[in-house]
Amino acid sequence: MRWTQTLIPTLREAPAEAEIVSHQLLLRAGLVRKLAGGVYSFLPLGLRALRKVERIVREEMDRAGAIEVLLPALQPPEIWQQSGRYETARQVLYKVYDSARREWVLSPTAEEVITLLAAAEIQSYRQLPKNFYQISVKFRDEIRPRFGLMRAREFIMKDAYSFDVSDEAAQQSYQRMYDAYTRIFARCGLRTFPVEADTGVIGGTLSHEFMVPAETGENEVAYCEACGYAANVEKAVSGVKAESAPGGAATPGPEKFATPGVQTIEDLTRPPYNVPAARQIKTLVYLVESRPLIVLLRGDDQLNEAKLAARLGTTTFRPATAEEIFTLLGAHPGSLGAVSSTLPGAAPPVWADERLRGATDMTTGANEDGFHLRHVDVDRDLRVNEWADLRTVRAGEPCARCGKPLQIRRAIEVGHVFKLGTKYSEKLGSGFIDESGVRRPCVMGCYGIGVTRTLQAVIEQSHDADGIIWPVSVAPYEVCLTPLQMSPGSPVREVAERLYEALQREGIEVILDDREERPGVKFKDADLVGFPFRVNIGEKSLARGQVEIKRRAGGALEVVGVDEAAGRVATLVREARAALQVGG
Amino acid sequence: MRWTQTLIPTLREAPAEAEIVSHQLLLRAGLVRKLAGGVYSFLPLGLRALRKVERIVREEMDRAGAIEVLLPALQPPEIWQQSGRYETARQVLYKVYDSARREWVLSPTAEEVITLLAAAEIQSYRQLPKNFYQISVKFRDEIRPRFGLMRAREFIMKDAYSFDVSDEAAQQSYQRMYDAYTRIFARCGLRTFPVEADTGVIGGTLSHEFMVPAETGENEVAYCEACGYAANVEKAVSGVKAESAPGGAATPGPEKFATPGVQTIEDLTRPPYNVPAARQIKTLVYLVESRPLIVLLRGDDQLNEAKLAARLGTTTFRPATAEEIFTLLGAHPGSLGAVSSTLPGAAPPVWADERLRGATDMTTGANEDGFHLRHVDVDRDLRVNEWADLRTVRAGEPCARCGKPLQIRRAIEVGHVFKLGTKYSEKLGSGFIDESGVRRPCVMGCYGIGVTRTLQAVIEQSHDADGIIWPVSVAPYEVCLTPLQMSPGSPVREVAERLYEALQREGIEVILDDREERPGVKFKDADLVGFPFRVNIGEKSLARGQVEIKRRAGGALEVVGVDEAAGRVATLVREARAALQVGG
């Protein structure tokens, strides 16, 4: 391709809208343009890079035995009602209306369609296992889209759905996808690490996310360098549960004391009270599908709503308002507690974090504004309906596996694998007749890769002050030829044209910067767009019969004879390709 | 690919929903499944064929110098308001609402987005010409989707948009696309013919459609076998305009006569009136953007609404109701006319079809229920505000170019090229600074191919009673290997597996029917799906050291030695490929 024949509108300055460097570089390198919040047009070079990610995904999915299909974006709401997700995924579902005022939804994922398809077309164990995937545009109603392609309203996703005869077989399908994902991201030149993940609104029993470490990531991951444990903070556990509970000997019994003006855990840690947060019980009130629930945590712990949702089996809950709480418990936040004697007759159920089990001599609200209770022994004074791991782990806590301190870092989720079990197959009727003639539901898995997000994650991970540093596997072009002048008939131009033809014949993806621009402009643009190799063709070096090959990553410069140039560049490109051809 | 590892749910019977054979075969061959009216899932083989059409389109667009981009489906309504299409394309625009009740539209085409992109990124004549294309999913609110992929709510379209400095340059871009389209359809194995077309709601000055002749097509094309003239009936003209007008000598003047019970042109042709339709004036009343318009045609002609729309420059019109007409003219349909003396003072404008020019001794309604006027001379008795070609041509009329009789046939539109002029570039601000420093609007063209429709058109044109007959260029697989039994260790199976490997090594797209099914079932399925070549491997012929190669098109059978089989099949496939490699 010739630079002047495509469209590469580079920008010197980063548009104000772009908060993170990969978003800035997407715009500055002329890869995408924003049409509206969270909605982007792919310009020629952005699309080339995107197609390369797609191709890697496709090759590895095919290699793993998955079969490509293409499912509609426009879907009838009835099938979402059938799966129950019309409600649970309500917040992200775009509604479409046709001229007859009939409603449709725009697909964010395709569990419903594929499960119905399997229900219609798969009848026998002989047809299993099957794994269907598609690479297609998806839609998600993001209230606050941000970070470019990272959290967009319209994006490209690879979604796959496996159908198996048993849990064990489903586990194998899961593992095949897990392995495929590992290869996919490695081939994209991305350093990712898998973490245990919450199954969220999709549901299911086992889940891993593939994470790209990045300061700007929207996920937090807890990990242990010693033993390799890694989990999304939404799901992560630590060894503190196993610590002995605070307190010690049993106390005589709860004692009420006045705490005028105390509103928070923090307030009570200060004089004259001096109750450490770890010796307080934090009392939260939630409305779960309109029914109240009391949630208790140690005063220094934070509730992890993802863990609560997983345990509840629904995301339809919210904190109660101060008014709702007063109606329920007769006190306002700041003085709340769950000591049985202070609760009303028909008290809401009480869920407590495991870390409170057996704790003695604790302090908590008295359900009377301005009063607390001390000397509270949890097992004696509280009636806990359900114990659960509900707290968020913190950096420095001991790893649950090996006891070494956990660390926490931010990351970008680029892939997600789920064991779904039979949740969807039962609701949507996907089953099979087994070898003994009995009909059973298919055991499913689902597997997503944010293709557009992966593209941007590559940039987030691989750039420098001058611009993008593309891995050769996803670079829009592998080589940029940069003649320092383009006067017709000049030797510089002639050599550039000759190299352009020679490299194309070698199967190298090459772009010729045929603009009549100053060398500095061409260098800056090539570095900004981030082609893995640049060949500088200038009068001076040409006079010595030489051209320069510059490697974008690291900046190594190699001077080669004009006649060897095409061969040498082709070799360098092939070596770079081979380095990313993971396991095949 | 092994048959058992993909999904090919063939059907013996055509589902009742499928009215035309290509739609039936799409379903019966297991290529697609319906999710909802006009919304289809592509199963593995359907997707493979679709991707091959896409690849041909992409290669020819690239060859023609067009640059691929990818534009969003989700678009802000404001840009459609800016172009004026929010109103004119209203009927086909899906409206989307997000959780903040903000409205979006789903893109049926992308003139607005690409023109705004050009407005932002193209500033100089040096950047022109440019032609951007995308292959992407589109949405169209079809009230009555039908015929499978032919008229769907969600479909895949290739749309391209060219930007030029002048009309002459735009004409060259148009011609390049016209030539590319000719190659694309030929490479898909489709017999198409280009016809002059109406520019419709897209607007513009010149347009051709690429048509596939088919009884089931939704378009009518008028064509002349003698000189090659061909045009969509919406646009077609014939030589009858030039015929001498009916009548002859001038008449003394209009004469009113009673016509009790006459409601139609047909009624007046019968006794006691006996007025031939050709001697009547048909009077129609339309409301154009709420304002009335009288349209006159010869009694035996039909109004062509597309021609009226083109002349009006809007599609926002409808026939007036009987009540509205009575209010306007004081009479009901059946007795309407436009003789000046019978019209009210502030009469609506009168448009007449060219064929009425100079007609004498005509009969028309008197604008008084139950009465008509005879001896009407058009030039004398009517005040026509505008003469235009408004009639629909009919088979047998003389060709406007050569005078030979026109024929009419039905066809499927698979592609459409438009010269747009500056309609969009002016409204959306796409311009350039020319060589003399003056800013001018870009001259645009737009070019569409219904990719999913093209796929189905191939089937509509190429099938027999047994199923699809794929051209090798778009076949899901080029060769089907059909072992007549699959017992483990049998020579039949062993030869089949050996051929499977050998053909893959030769770069042939091959599917191995590894099902344990009766030969008859395998033959029927292979013919139904329509693989271009089938290789039958059976015990009997194998005992003679032979296998059979069957060609789907024509059914020719060739018996070859086992050892030559792979080479011979590869040769046949390569010959078939070469036959469709049009001009390249």
Automatic annotation (TrEMBL), chains A, B:
Lineage: Bacteria, Pseudomonadati, Verrucomicrobiota, Verrucomicrobiia, Limisphaerales
A Gene Ontology molecular function term of the record: proline-tRNA ligase activity
Keyword Transit peptide: no
Record-given protein name: Proline--tRNA ligase
Keywords: Aminoacyl-tRNA synthetase, ATP-binding, Cytoplasm, Ligase, Nucleotide-binding, Protein biosynthesis
GO cellular component: cytosol
Keyword Nucleotide-binding recorded: yes
GO biological process, one term: prolyl-tRNA aminoacylation
Reactions this protein catalyses: tRNA(Pro) + L-proline + ATP = L-prolyl-tRNA(Pro) + AMP + diphosphate
Domain characteristics, as noted in the entry: Consists of three domains: the N-terminal catalytic domain, the editing domain and the C-terminal anticodon-binding domain.
HAMAP family linked: Pro_tRNA_synth_type1
Subcellular location: Cytoplasm
Main location: cytoplasm
Function noted in UniProt: Catalyzes the attachment of proline to tRNA(Pro) in a two-step reaction: proline is first activated by ATP to form Pro-AMP and then transferred to the acceptor end of tRNA(Pro). As ProRS can inadvertently accommodate and process non-cognate amino acids such as alanine and cysteine, to avoid such errors it has two additional distinct editing activities against alanine. One activity is designated as 'pretransfer' editing and involves the tRNA(Pro)-independent hydrolysis of activated Ala-AMP.
SUPFAM superfamilies: Class II aaRS ABD-related (SSF52954), Class II aaRS and biotin synthetases (SSF55681), YbaK/ProRS associated domain (SSF55826)
Record text on subunit structure and interactions: Homodimer.
Span of domain Aminoacyl-transfer RNA synthetases class-II family profile: 38-471
Similarity comment text for this entry: Belongs to the class-II aminoacyl-tRNA synthetase family. ProS type 1 subfamily.
PANTHER family in alphabetical order: MITOCHONDRIAL RIBOSOME PROTEIN L39/PROLYL-TRNA LIGASE FAMILY MEMBER, PROLINE--TRNA LIGASE
Enzyme nomenclature, EC number: 6.1.1.15
Pfam families assigned to the protein according to its UniProt record, in alphabetical order: HGTP_anticodon, tRNA-synt_2b, tRNA_edit
